[in-house]
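Schema walkthrough. Field components (list of strings):
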Amino acid sequence: MRTPKTKKPRTSSKARVSKDKPVILITNDDGISAPGIRNLVESVKDLGHIYVVAPDKPQSGMGHAITIGEPLRLHKTHHFEGIDSYACSGTPVDCVKLAVDKVLHRKPDLCLSGINHGANHSINVIYSGTMSAAVEAAIEDIPSAGFSLLDYSIEADFTAARLYARLVVEKMMRTKLGRHTVLNVNIPAQKPELIRGLKICRQAYAKYNENYVQRNDPHGKHYYWLTGEFVNADKGKDTDVWALANNYVSVVPVQYDLTHYSYKEQLAKSWKL
Amino acid sequence: MRTPKTKKPRTSSKARVSKDKPVILITNDDGISAPGIRNLVESVKDLGHIYVVAPDKPQSGMGHAITIGEPLRLHKTHHFEGIDSYACSGTPVDCVKLAVDKVLHRKPDLCLSGINHGANHSINVIYSGTMSAAVEAAIEDIPSAGFSLLDYSIEADFTAARLYARLVVEKMMRTKLGRHTVLNVNIPAQKPELIRGLKICRQAYAKYNENYVQRNDPHGKHYYWLTGEFVNADKGKDTDVWALANNYVSVVPVQYDLTHYSYKEQLAKSWKL
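Field assembly_structure (string):
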């Protein structure tokens, strides 16, 4: 078994400056058994020293949740031949935190999350466990990317997603990346030859109109299932939704400073503060 | 010594267009039984028609998690005299979604979240269920604010937090607010007479260095408790952390467009896209 090096992490673009192959942490939110993470591992496994720490069960829609009130478990698994992999009882964000502290004992050079079964464009970025894991990595000074295929099916065809995930990772490894880099990469559910390439985009302004389905249990009490209609109110041609509808792979650089700077100035003036 | 003025509010913003008092939805992440939400309700209950929809159990650190794979329950409670209140089995974000669709059957004029037991400044905004509920409201076109007191104790003194929560709500009601307004309000654990007033801030650049505590169960297997050291790397005097350390109530306007615009331009150039 290979053990991670415990050298002191350098503070920038580590994948690029590593003398040997970079250490790459891979996680997801569909769980360690999902086809998506298997496809991601397969597509990049020769590009670095791969470690997988992923949820032991589906964790879709967990956003940036962390486990505070109960302890976490971590089990070594044999899901990926020749690759150290661990199933974690927590959320995708827990996986990143625990991987750094208790599996790698250092910061990896890169963190990859996915390939998610289903879209994480526009407002989905905020609900997505896949993307929150990537954001957590960037908070911890680890450049990262989340990958999502626009096909929810367990039997989705990951051919194009694999090609483009690898392309993005290769580009990241060749680029001087800020240590807080996060890329949100969505791939159309298309054959590779129909995809028109990468497009750097902004997050579309879109949301869901909720419509909970009410049912009654055998004791006559109500329960509610979340359903909703996705509404894209953004007609811009520079958005991820537009890019995907036009058969591009969308790449949105993501940040985690949530300050609304323009409104900050406006409010200070309005409230005379 | 400056204490908040309590002049009579006029109904404004979305609330402004209501013929009578605004409809105010209140939620939190510490659960419907927490002292914090009771204090928030008490501090603003004469300012609007109050509805409470809050988690039936603590949901701290749930971030923007939503419940997808199982249904939700909603139980009418009698926690607040004369106020319609419901306990929800889901996350804080679920509470907002379900409240709009199945309790209010309309969008409230304002959504308030808290008062949280413990700080939600700087990077905490991203892990916080309290703040994620407020952000969810803004996504749904409902101006909102999350309130947090810098005291984790169940027996915390909410005197100053109540005064300032009310002051902020009154100011919000007198201001023409954008429908996507979210304010992250943190209140020092101080007596009101020691607090120097409100300060509009940006989110400090700070994070946690994780240090999981490893223990063994009676069967000899490891489990891990999340602990960590908060590290503020931001020396700015315009941050929420600075304001709180200097006995101001910090107010950070929050956004949910996570696009990193400056890096977007840089990456497009670097990747020639």
